[in-house]
Amino acid sequence: MRRVLVVCLGNICRSPIGEGLLQHHASRSSLKIFVDSAGTSAWHQGNEPDPRSSDVMLRHGHSIANQRSRPLIEQDFFTFDHILVMDSQNFLDVNAFPKGTAKVERFIDGVDVPDPYYGEGDGFQHVYDMLNQSAKVWIEKWMA
Known about the structure:
By secondary structure, the chain is an alpha/beta fold. It has helices at 14-28, 51-59, 76-79, 88-95, 123-143; strands at 2-8, 33-39, 82-85, 103-106.
């Protein structure tokens, strides 16, 4: 079974959406996968996803209510096969950890997924759209 960790800064906005979408598309494709998420910071440790992340997921028929924020830890680099990060700063922060067996990659190759935390308007919908498309691509890749 493939094991995937999705990482952003606080693990309350982008990575919970990414985790939920990877789980959704894997389930639809009957791909056996374990997905979790974490943050490069521990600012929100134990917290539920940001209500705006939960809302955008619910509008599309997905619940992420069972997720809780947690920080990235060194053991994650040995527990997971893939660590998918949201932006270039997350990539640098994750790669500052001691190396393990996990492959660290961008959730969307070459593209920073913007952090919608301080934004207004449809930032969470924009992040959902970006991650939804990329999650489909990851699942198709892993199915091959």
